[in-house]
Amino acid sequence: ETDLAYQDKTNFDYFAILLLCISLEDAYQMIDFQTDYCVDLCSAVDYPKIDFELIRKHFYDWEHHKEENILTYRDKSFSSPVTGTTGPSHHTTWLDAMDDSMSTYLDTK
After folding, report:
1. pLDDT for 5 beyond 70
2. Three-state DSSP class for 72?
3. Which of 26, 35, 38, 42 is least surrounded, with the fewest CB atoms within 10 Å of its CB?
């Protein structure tokens, strides 16, 4: 047996989210929506503290890097929103990295 009142509310939420997504005009509005949505989701669960504003900033930077140079934006590294530790840059640029095996990726050269 299902709770129809819950189903109606859930269906309404999905429809409202769909309408909102359709109205988003650029990548930055999409980033804001996704960040706010994740904040909302995580508020309902027992999850470690995450710096969602840092995540938003990282995605803004990532989008800017992508607009700046589509061939090099993947070569950037960012700090963890949980630990604050910045990941190392990969030893090979994305454009030159033809071997996507785990062993090559983990190789520090």
Report:
1. no
2. coil
3. 26
Q: Which tens digit of pLDDT belongs to each residue from 65-77?
A: 999 999 988 889 8
The phi and psi torsions of 68 (rounded to 5 degrees) equal -70, -45
Q: Scanning the structure block, which residue is given the tokens 């607009």?
A: 67
Average pLDDT over the chain reads 85
- CA–CA dist 50, 53 (Å, integer): 9
Q: Pick left, alpha or beta for residue 84 (phi over 0 → left; psi -120 to 50 → alpha; otherwise beta).
A: left
Among the listed residues 21, 23, 56, the one whose alpha carbon sits nearest the alpha carbon of residue 39? 56
What is the DSSP-derived secondary structure letter of residue 81? T
- Render pLDDT for 41-63 as a digit per residue (tens, 0 to 9): 888 888 888 999 999 999 999 99
The whole-angstrom separation of Cα 15 and Cα 9 is 10
- How many Cβ atoms from other residues are within 10 Å of residue 56's Cβ? 19
